[in-house]
């Protein structure tokens, strides 16, 4: 992995007393951050809702499923918008990085009245082939042929791409792919009405990546500062091996029309 740009010097080595004093000062700041995060989460829960008026129907392993069906008898639904477009050979490595965290969470979420479902615009056979390769068990359905991905900012129509910028993360921005990552949250009441309560994109998805939280505890951290594309180091979990290396100059490359996904340049050469 590339040498981190932010850590050019070895930290001071101090006595146990000095180390404890430094740790306690950092702990004070960590507690402040935790309180701020709790307050932000409270404000997130107090966001207004919007009613979902459109009728979405997905292709699932058991046939056609509506958005209401995805709740699986619970009142809360979290949808992860996975970057796997029609014709892609495989899913986005970064989304796959997140996907590796999902299966262990499902039983715990269910105990708190939450269902997790993954949605992509690829066809169901394409989804199931990649899911089998990765060894995942979570529910994954296809939104192919629906407006779902477009309505929730995670896919671009050809006419949108022609304009040069797309609407993503609540602003017009450049994004080098037809598919984009995100997570959306929905609530279904006893009358069967569905409400959109929250969506997050880009760095807002960091909180879902347990491996990043582990890395943040280590001396090198995420070690991404010297990389032209921060997540260029990420691979599908079946692609790490003895020859694994990272090209710090590799940039984000959009999926090729022949079926490739969002790899860095080094993976194309």
Structural topology:
Layout: H1 16-45, E1 50-51, E2 57-60, E3 63-66, H2 67-70, E4 76-81, H3 93-99, H4 103-110, E5 114-120, H5 124-134, E6 140-142, H6 148-151, H7 158-162, E7 166-168, E8 171-173, E9 182-188, E10 194-201, H8 210-215
Parallel strand pairs: 4-5, 5-6
Antiparallel strand pairs: 1-10, 2-3, 4-9, 7-8, 9-10
Characterization of the model:
The strands form 3 sheets. Strands 1-10-9-4-5-6 form a 6-stranded mixed β-sheet. It has a two-stranded antiparallel sheet with strand order 2-3. The protein has a two-stranded antiparallel ribbon with strand order 7-8. With 269 residues, the chain is α+β, with helices and mostly antiparallel strands. The protein has helices at 16-45, 67-70, 93-99, 103-110, 124-134, 148-151, 158-162, 210-215, and strands at 50-51, 57-60, 63-66, 76-81, 114-120, 140-142, 166-168, 171-173, 182-188, 194-201. The protein is globular and about 65 Å long.
Short description:
The protein is an alpha+beta fold and 269 residues long. It has 8 helices and 10 strands. The N terminus and C terminus are likely disordered.
Features:
six-stranded mixed β-sheet, single chain, disordered C terminus, 10 strands, 8 helices, alpha+beta
Radius of gyration: 21 Å
> Which whole number gives the mean pLDDT?
91
Biggest sheet strand order reads 1-10-9-4-5-6
Give the topology string: H per helix, E per strand. Answer: HEEEHEHHEHEHHEEEEH
> Between the first and last Cα atoms, what is the distance in angstroms?
18 Å
Shape: globular
Biggest beta-sheet profile: 6 strands, mixed
Strand content: 15-25%
Which blocks of ≥5 consecutive residues have pLDDT under 50? 1-6, 255-269
What is the number of beta strands?
10
Helical stretch tally: 8
Helix content: 25-40%
Structural class of the secondary elements? alpha+beta
